[in-house]
Specification:
- The protein is an alpha/beta fold.
- It contains 14 helices and 14 strands.
- The radius of gyration is 21 Å and the shape is globular.
């Protein structure tokens, strides 16, 4: 038996994570088409965002400029390199490559932009980790096909994959097919993840809530499963060294009490919210609990004759997830609710919460990594993790974000414990390594980054970049391969 290893492995992929629609900007430049993210207005913690199928003059659309990575990518990548990044998780804007999604030919100017980004990353020996679809699709696909509810959209996605796999096969090794694919199991994900148009109420995250709507979401999810599986098989045929993974928004939920009803509810939530999608993508088939859920709800998934074979042949190579917080579940409807990453849960009396009411739970990350790895036993990455907070720029220009350092220190320490537990963890990319637009609220003041960007909720600011205290701290973490956390 080998001795206990309490260190991160050599070659561990330290880095940071972003998404095109939250940092890139240049929404109508270089031939880019309108995306679903481009028609969502700004909001706040208490004011919901709106979906506007026709852009409205005078409204603030955060994705249109975001933090203008489109023009600042060289400066930003240089700062990532200064921190010592080994990997940079980014996404590609589908509508920058295929402006309408169903175009016959790709947009060369869009492809050239990513040529330049990858060349800059290679200059600093930073490995790109590319999310192919991250909460944006060409808006034309929503308008003409009602997004992923239409099976034909899977064909358009695979065509997009074929173009980028061939174009970047010599510079990109790691790919993720969909960001937080399991969000489509939740009403909130209909438009953001599924490009399914709202039923008349344009409040972001709104759905009708009827059984038919849930059935539509699961049908759209099935089409994404097929698209993912086809992309995995295609990618391996184009380059056998490609590593193609899934990405799950892992929602850690504890039973509030030892009441058996609470225990069963926690298990059911873990299954339906977390494991339904990863079972299909990792194991290549729908699990039994999903089949029972569909039967109980009267949901029938329209499948083609070859669909089960497609899913089996397109299993992913590795598993990635986001982890921010944990919540509790209970059969008691009177318990106090609290927020989380795109979801609500019950308050845990043993945990503190952030300003956005996300409960801070580093030990929950260790528990989650063990729970996932014991099920699948394939390589894993934590590709989103972080603390959204309001940062204050002092008179001398410093930003003392000790609260962010404390949050990350605790989570990295628990990742190390998970490695000692036997979890095959190969990388860590905390979310929003540079300040960017919040996906849920559209705010800038909810900051995650090691790098501060001078821009406010109203879209005003110089876009100047500056290092926070956490910048130097994370550089030290990377240099020591996670050994120096103080």
């Amino acid at each position: 038996m080998q001795p206990l290893n309490k260190r991160f492995p050599e070659g561990f992929l330290w880095g940071g994570a972003t998404a095109a629609n939250q940092l890139e900007g240049g929404y109508n430049e270089g031939g880019k088409g309108l995306s679903t993210a481009d028609v969502i207005t700004a909001g706040t913690h208490t004011t919901p965002r709106k979906i506007t199928p026709v852009l409205e003059q005078g409204m603030n659309y955060p994705s249109h400029e975001a933090i203008d990575f489109y023009r600042h990518y060289k400066e930003d990548i240089r700062l990532f390199a200064e921190m010592g990044f080994k990997v940079f998780r980014m996404s590609m804007a589908w509508s920058r490559i295929f402006p309408n999604g169903d175009d016959a030919q790709p947009n060369e100017a869009g492809l050239k932009f990513y040529d330049d980004v990858f060349a800059e990353l290679k200059k600093y020996n930073i490995e790109p980790l590319v999310t192919i679809s991250h909460y944006e699709a060409p808006f034309h696909l929503a308008q003409k096909y009602n997004g992923w509810s239409d099976r034909r959209v899977a064909d358009f996605y695979v065509n997009y994959c074929e173009v980028i796999f061939n174009r970047y096969k010599d510079v990109v090794k790691y790919w993720l097919t969909f960001n937080e694919i399991n969000i489509l199991t939740m009403p909130f994900g209909s438009f953001m993840a599924g490009a399914i148009l709202p039923d008349g109420n344009t409040e972001f995250g709104h759905t009708a809530g009827a059984a038919e709507d849930e059935a539509l979401r699961y049908q759209a999810l099935h089409h994404q499963f097929l698209a993912s599986a086809r992309a995995v098989k295609l990618g391996h045929s184009i380059h056998p060294d490609f590593k193609i993974g899934c990405m799950i928004a892992y929602m850690c939920s504890y039973p509030l009490t030892c009441n058996p009803e609470d225990i069963i509810l926690a298990q059911q939530k873990d299954n339906l919210t977390n494991f339904l999608c990863s079972d299909v993508q990792v194991r290549g088939a729908y699990p039994g609990f999903a089949k029972r859920y569909f039967a109980d709800k009267g949901i029938e998934i329209a499948m083609g004759e070859q669909d089960e074979q497609i899913l089996q042949e397109g299993r992913v190579d590795f598993y990635t997830c986001s982890y921010y917080s944990s919540t509790c579940v209970s059969a008691d409807p009177e318990q106090e609710k609290i927020g989380g990453n795109l979801s609500m849960g019950l308050k845990n009396p043993y945990l503190k919460a952030s300003a956005w009411e996300w409960q801070i739970d580093p030990k929950g990350l260790r528990w989650s990594l063990n729970n996932i790895y014991n099920r699948y036993q394939i390589p894993m990455m934590v590709v989103e993790n972080g603390l959204g907070a309001v940062d204050t720029v002092e008179e001398d220009g410093t930003i003392n974000d000790d609260y962010r350092i404390d949050y990350l220190r605790g989570h990295i320490a628990e990742m190390k414990e998970a490695v000692a537990d036997g979890v095959e963890l190969i990388g860590y990319t905390p979310w929003g390594c540079i300040d960017l637009v919040s996906a849920g609220t559209g705010e800038m003041k909810k900051r995650y980054g090691f790098i501060y960007v001078d821009k406010d909720n109203d879209g005003q600011g110089t876009l100047a970049r500056s290092r926070k205290k956490s910048f130097g701290w994370y550089k030290q973490v990377i240099e020591s391969n996670g050994e120096e956390l103080e």
